[in-house]
Write a structure and sequence with these properties.
It catalyses: Hydrolysis of terminal, non-reducing alpha-D-galactose residues in alpha-D-galactosides, including galactose oligosaccharides, galactomannans and galactolipids. One of its GO terms (biological process) is carbohydrate metabolic process. The protein is of the alpha/beta class. It has eleven helices and 16 strands. Strands 7-6-5-4-3-2-1-8 form an eight-stranded parallel beta sheet. Strands 9-10-11-16-13-14 form a six-stranded antiparallel beta sheet, covered by helices on one side. Strands 12-15 form a two-stranded antiparallel ribbon. The protein binds beta-D-galactopyranose. The site of beta-D-galactopyranose has 10 residues, from loops.
């Protein structure tokens, strides 16, 4: 393509971008960053938010190779893996307290007697990917095993030799040096390890990672740890929301892992949790015991229409666009000119919630088809606004498509 033609095409593209930006209100165009393209780390991973399972929220330190293998089996037999939940991630407490005489990390003999490579092989043989955990400090948060500070290259090589696909990197027991420095060191070590490893940064949002981590990791925690209750989940959703404009393919805000199925919230509260995480393009990491989950849990986690919102190729994080006390509208653009809308009642009684087209980036004359992603029903024609009665701590989630 000649220089002038390329310049012409670039100009046309900028006009198109400008048109998209001016056609939607500021809240919905949190996608400004996404329009700039992929995250700078550019290892080709997490082009959509990563999906999988992690041991921490349910099991904490009570993990062993038998239950991890059973979990991998269950991810396949329940159909979750075929919906995109590919990563099986070990969290804290998988290692011995001390390194070996060569300074290598060692799997805990009492709980992982076959070693990590054998476990990764088992997971890979099921068509899944395998993730592990370490820490940018001298010890992990449990203090039961070493962290990787000062051993970044050696540990990255160990993980690559074990055929690890994903590293969650925590922030405990650090010497108070900048996380930029400590996380960049491991990011580079992974890039030099000879294996393409997704880098999930767990710095708890302390140093506003959204503003600097796109060149370092594929996702970054924006908050402290989630607890399995309504107050924690809603507060984390709000804290994460302020960083929406920084999310883009290759680098995502991480409001922590899912609690769906752990028992501390009602089914409707878990449905809200999953809907908002999906809309916010959060990594979807299941945190319950999938070997024994009930029907409601599986139904929530396997809603393929909600998952499709999370994995949409536009990669723009949806945001809270309106709130009236406890009654909220969250929305964001999707590919194909579609819009996702969540009407969320955070109050204690039933209430009517309305999304006006002006709230969600549509023109008042626009006529759309509205797909209800939880009822699995379509309203064939809606214009100007969408109103629904929503129960306490419940939500409705729609995808609006231009007619
Ligand atoms: C926390 C982290 C949790 C979990 C835990 C393990 O710092 O946020 O997600 O990894 O450490 O000790």
């Amino acid at each position: 393509m000649g220089g002038s033609t390329r310049a012409g095409t670039m100009m046309m593209l900028s006009y198109m971008v400008l048109f998209v930006l001016s056609a939607a209100p500021a809240a919905v165009v949190g996608g400004r960053a996404a329009l700039r393209g992929r995250g700078m780390l550019d290892n080709g991973l997490a082009l959509a938010p990563q999906m999988g399972w992690n041991s921490w929220n349910h099991f904490h330190c009570n993990i062993d190779e038998k239950m991890i293998k059973e979990t991998a089996d269950a991810m396949v037999s329940t159909g979750l893996s075929s919906l995109g939940y590919h990563y099986i991630n070990l969290d804290d407490c998988w290692g011995e307290q001390n390194r070996d005489s060569q300074g290598n990390l060692v799997a805990k003999a009492s709980t992982f007697p076959s070693g990590i490579k054998a476990l990764a092989d088992y997971v890979h043989n099921k068509g899944l990917k395998f993730g592990i955990y370490s820490d940018a400090g001298t010890q992990t948060c449990s203090k039961t095993m070493p962290g990787s500070l000062g051993y970044e290259d050696q540990d990255a090589k160990t993980f690559a030799a074990w055929e690890v696909d994903y590293l969650k990197y925590d922030n405990c027991n650090n010497p108070d040096t900048s996380p930029q420095e400590r996380y960049s060191k491991m990011s580079k070590a992974l890039q030099n390890s000879g294996r393409n490893i997704l880098f999930s940064m767990c710095e708890w949002g302390q140093n506003d990672p959204a503003t600097w981590a796109a060149s370092v990791g594929n996702s970054w925690r924006t908050t402290g740890d989630i607890d399995d209750n309504w107050g924690s989940m809603t507060s984390i959703a709000d804290q994460n929301n302020q960083w929406a404009s920084y999310a883009k393919p290759g680098g995502w805000n991480d409001p922590d892992m899912l609690e769906v199925g752990n028992g501390g919230m009602t089914t409707e509260e878990y449905r809200s949790h999953f809907s908002i995480w999906a809309l916010a393009k959060a990594p979807l990491l299941i945190g319950c015991d999938v070997r024994s989950m009930n029907y409601q849990t599986l139904e929530i986690l396997s809603n393929s229409e909600v998952i499709a919102v999370n994995q949409d190729k536009l990669g723009v994080q949806g945001q809270k666009v309106k709130s009236d006390g406890d009654l909220e509208v969250w929305a964001g653009p999707l590919s194909g000119g579609r819009v996702v809308v969540v009407l969320w009642n955070r109050g204690s009684g039933k209430a009517s919630i309305t999304a006006n087209w002006s709230d969600i980036g549509l023109k008042s004359s626009d006529v759309v088809k509205a797909r209800d992603l939880w009822a699995h029903k379509t309203i064939s024609s809606v214009q100007g606004k969408l109103t629904a009665t929503i129960g306490s701590h419940s939500c409705k989630m729609y995808v609006l498509s231009p007619k």
